[in-house]
Amino acid sequence: xxxxxxxxxxxxxxxxxxxxxxxxxxxxxxxxxxxxxxxxxxxxxxxxxxxxxxxxxxxxxxxxxxxxxxxxxxxxxxxxxxxxxxxxxxxxxxxxxxxxxxxxxxxxxxxxxxxxxxxxxxxxxxxxxxxxxxxxxxxxxxxxxxxxxxxxxxxxxxxxxxxxxxxxxxxxxxxxxxxxxxxxxxxxxxxxxxxxxxxxxxxxxxxxxxxxxxxxxxxxxxxxxxxxxxxxxxxxxxxxxxxxxxxxxxxxxxxxxxxxxxxxxxxxxxxxxxxxxxxxxxxxxxxxxxxxxxxxxxxxxxxxxxxxxxxxxxxxxxxxxxxxxxxxxxxxxxxxxxxxxxxxxxxxxxxxxxxxxxx
Length: 359
Ligand code: ATP
Fold this sequence. Notes:
By secondary structure, the protein is of the alpha+beta class. Helix content is 27%, strand content 34%. The protein has 2 domains: 5-88 and 157-233, P-loop containing nucleotide triphosphate hydrolases (Rossmann fold); 241-358, CATH 2.40.50.100. The chain starts with a helix and ends with a helix.
């Protein structure tokens, strides 16, 4: 009987738990009580701006740094005080880390030797690597990262850690290798932590994404939830594009330019606020009579993205981005007068200093 991918993943992976991890580097708090459980065979991406602590989290799981507090538990075993070489972890870094004086196969063999894999088994696994007889200098960046992934997996690790493994590659190779990493990860069913600052990459590859801010996870969830139901203004603005429109909260709704919209958090207090609205919640129609109104404006740019296009509209006092099928966008070239429509999706409210000052 065949097994489903989920069954395979659950069978082969181990659970990884980061519990209240703290790390301080000479006065700088890199991790401020980070907690995360990665399920068996799951791929979690840690996403966040530079300096938010992603790499530190990964290095603590690997055992390359010591925590100032908290625990790392792998497959039920507390490994917080266990040396890196005893944790059975495979890693791939951003910089190509292959030894230049060894072929791909020799790189794999060497890695396995360090983990005491038997010589016959080493040879067998090394032969299976892509580009087995090539040296790093004879491979493209993408090919080197494929070998680095094969080397990480050749030791049959319990956990795979990937630290920005694609960021040195050009866009097309990056997308191909991203899919390849996901395919291999699903096939092997290995529990994986993937660190990136690239939102598109995180949303495309992960079962769940943890958006990090200042040493903590601000929201953890499946890519669709992170994108369409951001829990905080930080997540909304870090993941995807967001329009900031002034509005007024009243009785569990927000009024934005004459339109009443539901709230993500209906308990939000009444008063002036900034509504965060995704471009795809904004559509537009040609305004035949070019009449004025709070949602009537002029198209100033149309950016072709493929099947969809992004249209930039000047409403006089604010610029709004709208995103829609290209066929619809191309009916409204730059200079057109248009009327915007706001889809009644639940809206997240930001109340920052600027909004308070405006109020
Ligand atoms: P990036 O994407 O830029 O690598 P990151 O989210 O991975 O960022 P970390 O590298 O984990 O962030 O760094 C978190 C914080 O800890 C930063 O303020 C950084 O300057 C600091 N930091 C990291 N490593 C060290 C170190 N070895 N010594 C001192 N400070 C460090």
